[in-house]
Write a structure and sequence with these properties.
By secondary structure, the chain is mainly α. Helices cover about 75% and strands about 0% of the residues. The radius of gyration is 16 Å and the shape is globular.
Length: about 130
């Protein structure tokens, strides 16, 4: 991605959003080497779950704290789904152990960041109550 839009949305500045976008692109590239019979099965599921992480962060960002926490929860659920998809891909020999480990590493980072953000929002919410 060489060009940057002159129109910026605040959620795009979030490091967690940027990492989630990068992970979605990584998965999109990875599933292209899966067998054709997985096109509408594991390939599609993995891509949709990976994209859902960033989509939920973007969708929840401008909302109330409660809504943002709800969307962060959905993003975490999608990240967990990606763990399962990656494991299935490794077990079916579509990706190797190192690729699965890299996915797990990135998903661990994403999940920790989302959990931390969710915790900070909830703490702020409780402090202001």
């Amino acid at each position: 991605m060489s060009q940057v839009s002159k129109y910026n949305f605040k959620f795009e500045d979030l490091k967690i959003y940027q990492k989630a976008m990068d992970f979605g692109e990584l998965v999109n590239k990875m599933v292209k080497k899966f067998p054709n019979h997985e096109l509408y099965a594991l390939s599609s599921q993995f891509r949709r779950a990976a994209d859902s992480v960033a989509l939920n962060i973007a969708e929840g960002y401008p909302s109330s704290d409660a809504q943002f926490v709800k969307h962060l929860n959905h993003a975490i659920y999608s990240a967990n789904e990606c763990v399962n998809c990656s494991t299935k891909a490794r077990r079916r020999n579509y990706i190797n152990f190192e690729e699965d480990e890299e996915n797990r590493k990135l998903l661990t980072e994403l999940t920790k960041m989302m959990s931390s953000l969710r915790r900070r929002i909830l703490e702020r919410k409780n402090t202001n109550s």
